[in-house]
Amino acid sequence: MTATMTNPGEPKGATMDNFMNMTKEAGHTPEIQRLVDLHAVLNDAMNGQLILAPISLEEPGKRMLDSGTADGTWLRGVRDSLSAQHYYFGSDIEGELFPTQPDGITYVQQSFKEPWPTDVRNSFDLVHVRGSLAGSSPERPAEVIKNLASLPKPGGWIQPSNGPAMTDFARMTSEVWTGIGVGDFANQLKTMLEEAGLQNAEERWIIVELGKRAKPELQAQSANGVSAPVKPIAAVANDLETAFSREQLDSLQGRVRAELENEGGRVEMIVAWAQQPVEG
Predict the structure, then answer these.
(1) What is the pTM assigned to this prediction?
(2) What is the pLDDT of residue 195?
C-alpha cells in the first residue's frame, strides 16, 4: 500500500542521473532482481542478523523504516526472521519499485533528501538505509543522515551501511563519488551519525565473499548483485574526469563479471548504527 506512515491498524553538476536513467530504461525487473541477489549475499555475510543496532526485537510493536527500500526486500527479510509482530515502513523516491501486493508493509514515495512530514518525525524505533547514500548528490551524504536523524523516537536507532565494490570497479566508484561530490562516505558513516547529534555510535566491517569465493548457491547471485550496476555507474563516470578511458569504462562490466566468475572476490561492507538521545 502507498500511504502515510501511521501505524497500519494494530500490532544538479554531475549527479547520479545517468545511473537512474539507465536503470529505468533497462526496466525495473532487472534492478529488483539485482537487489534481491545482493540482499541474499549480504544477509549470508551477516549470518542472518540484518539489524546490528541493539534494539529489543522480542517486544512487539516496533516501528521500522527502510529508506531507499525499492521493493521492500530488506523489510521482508527482517520480518521473516522475527517472531514478534512489528510495523514495517518502506520509503523510496521511485514509487514504481513498490510491490503491487504490499503484504502488510506500508510504502511511501519520499526522497531521503527532502524534509520528512512532521507526523512521522521522532516516531521510529529503527531507521535503516543501505547502499543508496550516493544518491544524495549533489548534496553530501551527511545531509541525508541529518535528515534521517529527525525520524527516530528518543532512544531509537539509525543503521546506515554501504558496500561492496571491487578492483577497477572500486577505483572507478571512488572517482565517481568524488566527482559527484559525495566523497568517501562509506568510511565516514560513524562520524556522520555522531555529527548529526546521535549517541552510542558504533560500526562493524563485514567480509563479503563474491562470485567463485562465495557459497555455491550464492555465486551467481553475488556476481549479478555486484556487476549489474557497473554499467550505469560507468555512464556517470563518462561525464566526469577520471583515470579511465571510455573504452575501459565500456568494458568494465564484462571484466568485473569475468573476474567474479573465474576467480571470485572478497570485499568489506561497513555497517554503522547510533541512537537518538533519550530526553530528560
Answers:
(1) 0.85
(2) 97
